[in-house]
Amino acid sequence: MGLRALLPMVDVCGMKEFNSDLTVLVTSCDAYRDVELPFLSLFRKHWPDCRYELALVSETGRDLLSDKPFDRVIATGFGKNWCQMLVEALERISTPYVLLLMNDYLLDAPVDDCKFSERLEQAKLFDVANLRLNPNPKGRFPWRNTDLMEYPKNTAYCVTCQAGIWNRDYLLNLARRNMSAWEFERYGSFMVGDEKRPLLVTPTKEFPFVDAVHKGCWERFGVDVCRRNGVEIDFSVRGLPTLKVRLCEGVKKLIFAVFPWTLIVRIQNLLDVGMKEKKNK
Known about the structure:
This protein is an alpha/beta fold. It has one domain: Spore Coat Polysaccharide Biosynthesis Protein SpsA, Chain A, CATH 3.90.550. Helices cover 33% and strands 18% of the residues. The chain is globular and about 45 Å long.
């Protein structure tokens, strides 16, 4: 792992001390190595004053061709599912809060650092389990005298991998009870009934990212973000989705638009259908 792993709270290049409250944790896997450089390029461009350690978790440690690399790479080795890798990463992190991101969450606008700091303070003040920075789905109940909304426990996608501030201990416990990222969302959403900490969400999208890769393919808007910012994409690894994939996604969106999300997910979980098979994405 080298010097960078031995100094988890220090930027080796700039000898910069990171904020001790939160770590930005990016989940990845070697199969998505090609996505990491676009992620990193856009993250450093749109959040240049980020005061939080930027950590990548994947199977193997490696250096990307970037003049501003990840602050730390947590290598878990092969043969582990997404949640096992997440658990190992969280066990190596000492900050009480984590901003959890997927490696294909590409920033397409500057991050409001002051606003993010305010949200982190609210996460600490209200002792949240999760404060999501993207209202997808929207919260249902106003939270005290704030602009935040609360998710009812045990409803579909009250737990997701969407960009959000997590209580590290809570996230660690939830990850230990699941396997893939999709199980984490689909089953995890119904494992929070006894949790006293609230699940909150901002009224608007405050972490300006696009979910650039679906079903192993680049989305057109993800490609557009990269091109606008002069970031190269290696299309030899993955291309745009096929017509079949687009049709399937269209049918799925229609179903979720017509029927209640919680009903759909409960039926999926009961019948054990619709789960993605890939372990990390």
